[in-house]
Structures are given as structure tokens and as C-alpha cells.
Amino acid sequence: MLLVAVLCLAACGAAPSGAPPGVTTLRIGDSYPPSHPASRDGVDFFVERAVELSDGRLAFDYFPSAQLGEAEDHVALTRSGAIDIGVVSPPYLADRLPLSNVADLPGMSTDACRPAAALSELMSAGGPDGSGAGILHTSEYGPQGLRMLFVGVQPGYEVMTVGVPVTGPSDVAGLQLRSSGGVLDAAVDALGAAPVSIAGPEMYEALSRGTVDGTTLPPMSATPYRLDEVATDSTLGAPLGSFTLSYTIGERTWRELPEDLRAVLTRAGAETTAHLCRGIEEENERARTALAEGGLHFTQQTPEQVAQWRTALEPVRGQWVADMEARGLPGAATLTAMEQALATAERGGSDG
């Protein structure tokens, strides 16, 4: 009902206003609390840079914490114009943006900055005429009426368990693990465990009651739920996968903006992608420390164990490609483009 109400407000022209003449106000919506890096190092930084670069000609109304809808609602909100810029999280939208889960595949990357740089290339809308657009824009974001402004990747998904230490992939077999869906479900399944869908706020109770044996999460996502109070053990360095989030502007809103403000948003977005990835990595490190101090025991994976994880999870990529191709989607081309973009990011960018 909330989504319907917001869409109605947009259609009826009841968007917030009051900006001075000559100032364009854009509405941003997402599902993250203000303390989350996506808000703090993403939206807040983006807003600050866009206002500065536009000399105050841009202003923003920000609606965090799912005020206007849940995470999966923001595609419809952004496309309809109910909001101008919204979070788009491919793992929650596997039916609409399946290719955009490519960065979340196991073993793709263990840091936040390289995959974010690679996705920026793949999600780019290209030049004004569309030339140079990335494969994820031409295949998914563009057809959905969306343009990526900045992107973030939460890496470092680990296996956190209750009373069952996990020192390698063989220890996961037979467990029931909470999973956030998408390719992570496939990773859990490939390890011989059963993926279970449980909302984040319900994880604490599910772990304490033994409904599941554990969960798959990056440390920064475990601290808000106080999982160190119920989970006893966690891997450290298992290449399970990542979680992609992007902030997009609706194509209709984009076309209505003057060219110089489009350039401002593009530049602010690029700077935000670089800033956000560093914020995510710092937050993950702080979270690991806090969880360890709270009693969660981390088992650092040795190079040999990491190799075992990669071997166990390797079939997930091939199956993902096969699934995409079976749906008539360019899975192989997307995976190749992602791997090439990651290699470029590893070298510090292209020479051109």
C-alpha cells in the first residue's frame, strides 16, 4: 500500500517542492539506515558533491530507511518518477536484473573497489548518443528506463555459525544457512548446504532458536543485528561472493535535466563510487573488530583452504552462465566483460 500511495503522489504532482527559483530538487530514496555506508559514504557524499559542483543549482530530498518502499520497490518508484534517484539491488531483483548479479558470483573479488570500478564500466550509459554503453546498461538498466549514477559492492560474505566451526568448505555440507538470495543461494547449494530465506531482522531469533545453523553475511551486515551474541564462529576469507547495490536515476528525469547538470551528476556519481568502496572496506574492518570483541571467533582461511573453497564453488559460474543463456540473455559475454573489467581495475585502470 505504501508503494501505491507514493506512486499516486507522484502522478498527482504532489512531490515536495519549495526550492528557490533556478534550483532543481531531486528526490532520493533507499532502504538503508543513515548509519549504513550506502547512506553515509554513498548518498550523503553524492549529495554534497553534486550541490558543490552545481554551485547550489541542485538540491536533494533524501528518504532513507525504506520510508517510501522496500528495497525491491525502488525500481518502480524510480521508473515512475515517484522518486528521481533510487537504490537498485540486483540480488533482490533476479527476475528483472539477472545479469547484474555477475559481480556477486563466488570468487569474483574479495575487495570492494575493483568490482565497483568494473561494474561502473559495465553499467555505463556511454556517451550522449549511447555509444560506448556497457553490456549491463544495454541489456538491463537501459531497457528498465534507468541510468546508473554510482555503484557499490559489499564483499566478504562469510559463513557464520552457531556451535559448528567451519574451517573449510566440507564443514558446510548438511547445514541450513540463511542466504540473501540470488547467486548466493547457488553458492550455498553448491557447498551441500540448504539456503534458507529469512529477513535480516529475524536472523537473531532464527540463530538463537536453532531454526538455521548459521548465516552468510559480510561482517558489516552482521553488526546491526548483534549476531556476535548468538553466532559463535565465522570464516574469514572464504570467497563466497558479494552484494551489489547501485543508485540510478530515471531516464525521464535525466532527459528533463539540462546538459550541465547531467554532467554534474555524472561526475559526482563517479567520485561517489570511488569514495563508497573505501567506506565499505573500512566499515567491514571495523565490524570484524567489533564482532570479535563481542565473542565471535574468526577462522582465517589459509591459501590452501581458499583454493578448496574456489574449487567447490567453481561450478556456480558455469551454471549461472548456462541459466542466463537458457533465458536468451548474454551470460557468457557478461561474465567475460566483468572478468576483463576486473583485470583492468587490477592494473589501476586503462592507459587511455
TrEMBL record:
<dbReference type="InterPro" id="IPR038404">
    <property type="entry name" value="TRAP_DctP_sf"/>
</dbReference>
<feature type="signal peptide">
    <location>
        <begin position="1"/>
        <end position="19"/>
    </location>
</feature>
<dbReference type="InterPro" id="IPR018389">
    <property type="entry name" value="DctP_fam"/>
</dbReference>
<dbReference type="GO" id="GO:0055085">
    <property type="term" value="P:transmembrane transport"/>
</dbReference>
<keyword id="KW-0732">Signal</keyword>
<dbReference type="Pfam" id="PF03480">
    <property type="entry name" value="DctP"/>
</dbReference>
<protein>
    <submittedName>
        <fullName>TRAP-type C4-dicarboxylate transport system, substrate-binding protein</fullName>
    </submittedName>
</protein>
